[in-house]
Design a protein that fits this description.
Blueprint: E1 5-10, E2 13-18, H1 29-44, E3 50-54, H2 70-73, H3 77-96, E4 101-105, E5 108-110, H4 112-119, E6 122-126, E7 130-132, H5 144-154, H6 156-165, E8 168-170, H7 171-177, E9 182-184, H8 189-201, H9 205-219, H10 227-235, H11 240-250
Parallel strand pairs: 2-3, 3-4, 4-6, 5-7, 6-9
Antiparallel strand pairs: 1-2, 7-8
Helix pairs in contact: 1-3, 5-6, 9-10
């Protein structure tokens, strides 16, 4: 399996690292194809609670797709369909991950890099990061699921402006439109992201994962009054973390969560 994307597990965190610095982490087909297995590995690790996705601290997140592959992977409609399937499989793995995924963004986050970031649950960037969604510069259309994720995050008007113009924009603009949740200095990007991950890891993981499951359901059209949503809510009172959380609160002590 490619080592252009590697995983380092240091519980309670797993870090999935884009590691093609000579190409500014441009996303090749083998990198996309490797992502689902990396996400699955992090989810399968019994002691990992949060997944961090980043570019290795080398000053770039992902400078887009590997355009040198385009003449092959988009040579025919069939090839384009297969390429799109591989990419969407990777992004769906991030989005559907039971364990939360945080994207730590520095430097260039362009095209496919934005797709990766938007599929994550939370996004932290450096003050000097730059963003762009540039299919209009190449005569392409952004993939359907990517457009939907972008619209959900920033709204249809902003999504249209970004896609229609293909312009490069700053981290401050990304923060203002809701594409980025937090901005930090370059030297602090990984410490800041790890601190947030550890804060999440310290909470009830039953609660964190059930909340993510419910929000994904809402995005897919589930109503708040649906049996699925109500089941998740009611099951919260029966899960072992609830009893421990109440006991710890009343005893003024740190909880020892039961759900791993």
């Amino acid at each position: 399996m490619t080592e252009k994307i590697r995983i380092e597990c240091t519980p309670p965190l797993a870090e999935i690292i884009l590691d093609a610095p000579q190409r500014r982490n441009a996303l090749s087909q083998d990198m996309w194809a490797a992502l689902p297995a990396r996400i699955a590995e992090a989810n399968a690790h019994p002691d990992v609670k949060v997944i961090l996705l980043h570019g290795g601290g080398g000053g770039v997140f992902a400078a887009g797709a590997d355009i040198s592959e385009f003449p092959v992977i988009y040579a025919t409609p069939e090839a384009a369909r297969e390429s799109g399937r591989i990419i969407e499989q990777a992004l769906s793995a991030i989005e559907a991950s039971a364990k939360p995924v945080i994207a730590a963004i520095e430097g260039a986050c362009i095209g496919g890099g934005v797709s990766l970031a938007v599929a994550a649950d939370l996004r932290i960037s450096t003050a000097t990061a730059s963003f762009g969604i540039t299919p209009a510069r190449l005569g392409l259309v952004y993939p359907p699921a990517d457009i939907l994720r972008l619209v959900r995050l920033v709204g249809p008007g902003t999504a249209k402006r970004l896609l229609f113009t293909g312009r490069i924009f700053s981290s401050a603009e990304a923060h203002g439109m809701g594409l980025v949740d937090e901005i930090t200095e370059a030297a602090g990007i990984l410490p800041t992201a790890r601190a947030l991950a550890l804060e999440i890891a310290a909470q009830s993981q039953w609660s964190v994962r059930a909340t993510k499951q419910m929000m994904l359901g809402f995005e897919a059209g589930m109503s708040p009054g649906s049996p699925e949503a109500l089941k998740l809510f009611v099951e919260g009172f029966a899960n072992p973390d609830f009893a421990e959380g109440v006991s710890a609160f009343l005893g003024k002590r740190k909880p020892e969560w039961r759900v791993k």
